[in-house]
Design goal:
two-stranded antiparallel sheet; 21% strand; single chain; 363 residues; 49% helix; alpha+beta
């Protein structure tokens, strides 16, 4: 149980990190419009909130990319330097290529899968692509193009998660806003908090400041499906492990049955010397608890040892990722394991011993 729950915690943390590292702790969007203007929000009052550290701007648009005869759809994220720093984009660049060009107006970064589909090369000077952005509110007319078109250089490839790898294009906010004439407009405003601040409390304060026109969500609400799925899977895993523990407890019942059968002669002598039925019950009951305690303690120590060796040496590697299999042991898991094992040990010792002693010939 210790090993499996710790491994599950590690996988859960790794998946959570992959899907939330690109998302700010709190995101502000308009309730009814895709974009809104920064002047609609009192940024000074927002910055003065006790838990707010900083905020960043983002414009998001669906774009089309072309390299020679290869066409790919992408989701453009035009962000500022604050976002690049807070999301630690440089640490997600493949081989670190292009880190010096982050947030430059004439450079973009693509998700790894899009980068591969366009057949670009890391560090290549021939990574120029055509960027097509649809014009808003344009009526189709003969001879007029419905796209803003720009040639731009791809500086590198990003590896965040499967969704972003297959859709994301990262660009400078100011360059993008000027390119399609949306200066001062944002799709989302990302809010970053100070340490030791409760996200829900901060979200409530921001919501009260902005009013009902804006949608304020934490990163947990934005990725609610991921977290709900993880919690459900975790509960299922714990229940399955409990069933395994119950099946293993039948070995304890068999041991106690054989022990009582072998010691009938000794107990007859003790009974003649004045030992009561309660004393006989206590002997086998506490012996069953001792056997359970030794088994649980040995299992926990062995599990912690395996987890520690994996954390320290990283002997098990995640296939395809070339990183050590993540192991995270939480003390609440330790408490849950001890509580469950104690309760089950008591039940599988108390009732079988009482039943077996009643059926024994010496009772």
């Amino acid at each position: 149980m210790v090993i499996l729950l710790s491994a599950f915690n590690g996988i859960e943390g790794m998946i959570s990190k992959l899907y939330t590292s690109f998302d700010a702790p709190i995101t502000i969007q308009h309730q009814t419009r895709k974009t809104f203007f920064l002047r609609e929000i009192d940024l000074g009052q927002l910055q003065k909130l006790r838990g707010v550290s900083c905020f960043s701007k983002e414009l998001e648009e669906l774009v089309v990319l072309r390299k020679n005869q290869r066409w790919v759809n992408a989701n453009m994220h035009a962000v500022d330097a604050v976002f690049v720093r807070q999301a630690k984009v440089s640490s997600h660049l493949i081989n670190g290529v292009g880190a010096a060009h982050l947030n430059q107006e004439n450079r973009v970064f693509l998700g790894a899968d899009i980068f591969s589909k366009l057949r670009l090369g890391l560090g290549s000077a021939d990574n120029n692509i055509q960027l097509y952005v649809p014009k808003r509110g344009l009526r189709m007319q003969l001879g007029k193009t419905p796209f803003f078109i720009r040639q731009i250089q791809v500086a590198g490839a990003m590896n965040f998660n499967q969704e972003l790898n297959g859709s994301a294009l990262l660009w400078n906010y100011d360059a993008a806003a000027q390119f399609f004439n949306q200066q001062g407009a944002v799709t989302r405003l990302h809010v970053y908090h100070k340490q030791n601040i409760n996200l829900e409390d901060l979200r409530t304060e921001i919501k009260a400041l902005l009013g009902p026109r804006f949608l304020v969500r934490t990163q947990f609400e934005k990725n609610a499906l991921i977290y709900k799925t993880s919690r459900s899977e975790r509960l299922v895993v714990f229940i399955i492990l409990l069933f395994m523990f119950i099946l293993a407890s039948f070995n304890l019942i068999a041991t106690l049955t054989m022990l009582i059968h072998e010691k009938q002669g000794n107990l007859q002598v003790l009974k003649a010397l004045g030992m009561t039925a309660q004393n006989r019950f206590q002997i086998f009951f506490f012996e069953g608890l001792l056997l359970s305690f030794i088994g649980v303690l040995s299992g926990v120590i062995l599990g912690l040892l395996v987890c520690w060796t994996q954390q320290y040496f990283g002997w098990l590697i995640v296939p395809g990722a070339n990183v050590p299999f993540p192991i995270v042991f939480k003390w609440k898991d330790f408490a849950s394991i001890l509580l469950a094992s104690t309760v089950l040990s008591f039940l599988f010792t108390y009732f079988p011993v009482r039943f077996l002693l009643r059926k024994a010939s010496f009772v």
